[in-house]
Amino acid sequence: xxxxxxxxxxANCGGTRAKQVMSPNAKFALAVALRSDAGAPLGDLFSFMSxxxxxxxxxxxxxxxxxxxxxxxxxxxxxHVITATAGLRSPDTIVTQAAVRAxxxxxxxxxxxxxxRPLEASARALLGEIGTECDVVLLGxxxxxxxxxxxxxIFGTRLQFPIAFVGRGDMSRGGLxxxxxxxxxxxxxxxxxxxxxxxxxxxxxxxxxxxxxAGLQEGR
Length: 220
Description:
Layout: E1 3-8, H1 16-22, H2 29-35, E2 40-41, H3 42-50, H4 52-64, E3 79-82, E4 88-89, E5 94-95, H5 97-105, H6 113-130, E6 134-139, H7 145-155, E7 159-162, H8 170-183, E8 189-191, H9 210-218
Parallel strand pairs: 1-3, 1-6, 6-7
Antiparallel strand pairs: 2-5, 3-4, 7-8
Helix pairs in contact: 1-3, 3-4, 4-8, 6-7, 8-9
């Protein structure tokens, strides 16, 4: 099977759930860890902030990532999360409240050099390490140029996305990814360049089964 890495679009670090996890009065484990010197994993943080959508992306990527060199520190697990100020980062990266505040204050806009330059640098470093036979799949919306324009400039036609994302909202994408990760069935991918970025809304997904819900709760 072909090698494959995933790029995950970021969570909103300035929304209601971000305020909850950053509250000095929050007693749940993630908030407590974030306030401590130990910090918390980026993947856990973004999963809390974004809910079903990011959890679906992370669960799916963990199921299907096939990095060419897992021992290579640049390639790692083959899962790379877009951030507002620090380019691409592993979901296992430990972050503190200071990092979350920086993410929340950073504008995810290609015109913002503080966002664009770290993303360009880490994407180019990744491209230089994955070789010529590795697929690069973006799990995120391609309707916005916020990161698509930057990433297609670097990865070109190698940057792909799940064609089933077209026409779906965030929650629908998250549910779709979770179902496929639980079933062990990968989605079909197409190049971002030249793709139809908008389309008719597909039929509503059936309610999550107990198996899929268990997979979400366990982070599989």
